[in-house]
Amino acid sequence: MNEPSLIRAFTLLLRRDLTLAFRHRSELANPLLFFVIVISLFPMGVSPESRVLQMIAPGVIWVAALLATMLSLDMMFRSDYEDGSLEQLLLSPHPVSVLVLAKVLAHWLVTGLPLLVLAPLLGVLLFLPIEAMPALVASLALGTPLLSLIGSIGMALTVGLRRSGVLLSLLVLPLYVPVLIFGANAVDAAAAGLPVTGQMYFLGAMLVLALSLSPLATAASLRISVS
Amino acid sequence: MWAFLHRFASPRYFYNLSGRLIPWLGWFTLLLMLAGLYLGLVWAPTDYQQGDSYRIIFVHVPSAWMSMFIYVVMAVASAIMLVWKIKLADVVAQSSAVVGASFTFLALVTGSLWGKPMWGAWWVWDARLTSELILLFLYFGYMALRAAIEDRNTAARAGAVLSLVGVVNIPIIHYSVYWWNTLHQGATVTKFDAPSIDVRMLIPLLVMALAFKLYYFTTMLMSARCEVLERERNNTWVQELAEKKA
User: Fold this and answer.
1) Of A38, A158, B31, B199, whose CB neighbour count within 10 A is largest?
2) From the CA of A203, how many Å to the nearest CA of chain B?
3) Which among A152, A171, A216 is the top mutation candidate for probing chain B, defined by the most B β-carbons within 10 Å of its own β-carbon?
4) What was the pLDDT predicted at B183?
5) B142, B151, B130: which is closest to B71 by C-alpha?
6) Which of A44, A34, A32, A190 is CA-nearest to residue A125?
7) What is the pLDDT of residues A144-197, one digit of tens each?
8) B157 vs A: CB within 8 A
9) Between helices A165-191 and A197-226, what is the axis angle to 10°?
10) Taking each helix axis from N to C terminus, what angle separates B127-148 and B57-84, rounded to the nearest 10 degrees?
């Protein structure tokens, strides 16, 4: 038996996860619908006035993106844990942290990327000025992979538990705080016509840090949960 | 050298040693606590600006220090548990979590009690208060994860990973909250106006800090002793101990 190379294993796993996701299209749409519904609740709950909405828009879009990502974390490992393919993954000769990265990437492609596309539309709904749109998309582009990466640790820790939804949010949401702060603030600053390079650098730095450390923690957590 | 260290990792040795240490630590804590309270509430001068209400710092600041110190202790113990598989380190981490969360809560409550006369509000989204609040959430997350996993070994290792992730994140959270706060609100009174603290205020503060630290060690050892007994209940030395007591 000749073993596939690491890169091949990575792409195979990525393709498998994407195929699985596209076979369940309705599940794919749910986090997005959640994102849209939560955001459309705010004008009803707070005020339909454009001045107020414009002020809260960055925070609302970011909090909704955070919650949508968190709720979709379940599909990262849950079904694999239930049908046993997660164990196969852990038994493979390749480093688990790299394989985990493939799964996180697949998760981001099916949940984070659509959020990027939708966010400007929702920004329009909340009267976010056009100047802030590039910052909104850019901050989400840097921030949502970060959310998937941090979330993967929490998901890996709770995958073996039956009712883990609330526990997962308790573990993951405090860790999301820095992403929220810099992401929402970048949009806020852009709406006020201020430069946003600082916030982007911070988000980028955190993304690099999470990219290098979180797969290790996720791999260790998966081993703990599966054993 | 190693044999000497390994002895500490043995639950039985720990049980006996901590049994002898706890009375000493306990009395010393009480003594320091009383001395610190006297020094803080009576001996220390009244602040020229805040009056007597500043005296809450003698509880507030030590508990805030302890809340962070204990999280680091937890993370170090967790790392020891993960690397060397020393179960006693996990007992220490588990027993520390509750004490740490209590100190964090105490820091938040005393902070808001102090904030009412000073800021005119029970809660202000001040950078330090906010990061302390998130620290409390991290403690709760750790305890909830441990409670949710039935198997003790799995719970220990999962909790250890979480506390290590948390300890990497705490500085990031702290500084991002700081940055957020300084951007959002201008110069409100968030610090003591005097640039440095008077010696007569510093001494009671340090005495109280030491008392709190000893209090932590005492309570942590007490609950760790219980935990050791529970985990080792099938071993002969625990059963002999129980027979002796009965």
Assistant:
1) A158
2) 11
3) A171
4) 61
5) B142
6) A44
7) 999 999 999 999 999 988 877 889 999 999 999 999 999 999 998 998 888 888
8) yes
9) 170
10) 40
**Interface confidence (ipTM) of the complex:** 0.88
Element (H, E) at A25: helix A25-45
| Residue whose C-alpha is closest to residue A106's, from A17, A6, A214, A7 | A17
Q: What are phi and psi of B150, to 5 degrees?
A: -75, -45
β-partners of residue B47 are B51
Check: CB of residue A27 under 8 Å from CB of residue A75: yes
Determine contact, residues A3/A93, Cβ cutoff 8 Å.
yes
Distance CA(A198)–CA(A100), nearest Å, equals 30
What three-state secondary structure class fits A138?
helix
pTM: 0.89
Q: Do B137 and A170 touch (CB under 8 A)?
A: yes
One-letter amino acid at A146 equals L
Phi, psi of A37 (to 5 degrees): -65, -45
Q: Rounded CA gap, A150 and B172, in Å?
A: 13
Give the C-alpha separation, B99 to B134, whole Å: 16
Spatial CA neighbour of A12 closest among A3, A4, A22, A1: A4
The two three-digit tokens of residue A99, written as one number: 């394989």
What's at B18, amino acid-wise? S
Residue A190 Ramachandran class (φ > 0 left, ψ -120 to 50 alpha, else beta)? alpha
Rounded to 5°, the CA angle B130-B132-B135 comes to 115
What whole-number distance in Å separates Cα of residue B102 and Cα of residue B66?
A: 10
Q: Where are the alpha helices (DSSP H) in chain B?
A: 2-9, 11-38, 57-84, 87-119, 127-148, 152-184, 199-231, 236-245
